[in-house]
TrEMBL record:
Belongs to the claudin family. It comes from Quiscalus mexicanus. The gene is Cldn8. This is Claudin. Its main location: other. InterPro entries: Claudin, Claudin_CS, PMP22/EMP/MP20/Claudin. The chain crosses the membrane at residues 74-97, 109-136, 156-177.
Length: 178
């Protein structure tokens, strides 16, 4: 069970890193009658990208941290905190698995590390779930809002799905350790 939790936590940690770095949080929606679409717009936490015909990709980092809208600043902060906590949880889980072998420290050291890893994985899973679900909810709300112009409508990007899967793996790892 500890090894399974370690694997789930490790994959969840890598997924959290990937979701944080990916530019596909919000992807342009093609909702009109256009059959040929030449451009796709990707919006991420760190940059915007434009893909033309799937052949040419241009990305631009956001110019200034101070010019970002407050929700994007909050999403960035939560995901960065989640990445740090995921790394700490994974390292504590490794130590817990190492000390789960019979040793001089006794069962107290084992249970402390195992419980700490479980709690850290559970916190990380919840921390990843908040910004990913917040973004997903905002995208769905804006997509069905008639006041939002069609060119500004977005769809759920791949990073959100990676984030939800990572959150599920981290929560499962935390449950296994607890």
């Amino acid at each position: 069970l500890q090894i399974a939790g370690l694997v789930f936590g490790g994959v969840g940690m890598l997924g959290t890193l990937a979701a944080t770095a990916m530019p596909q949080w919000r992807v342009s929606a093609h909702v009109e009658a256009n059959l040929v679409v030449f451009e796709s717009i990707w919006e991420g936490l760190w940059m915007d990208c434009i893909s033309q015909l799937g052949l040419r990709l241009q990305c631009k980092l956001y110019d200034s941290v101070l010019a970002l809208p407050p929700p994007l600043e909050a999403l960035r902060a939560l995901m960065c905190l989640a990445v740090l906590l995921a790394i700490v949880a994974f390292l504590v889980a490794i130590v817990g698995v190492k000390y789960s072998q019979p040793s001089k420290e006794g069962p107290q050291a084992v249970s402390t590390f195992i419980l700490a890893a479980g709690v850290a994985f559970l916190l990380t899973g919840g921390l990843v779930l908040v910004p990913v679900s917040w973004t997903g909810g905002a995208i769905v709300r804006d997509f069905y809002d008639p006041a939002v112009p069609v060119p500004l409508k977005r769809e759920l990007g791949a990073a959100l799905y990676v984030g939800w899967a990572s959150s599920a793996l981290l929560l499962a790892a935390g449950a296994m350790y607890c």
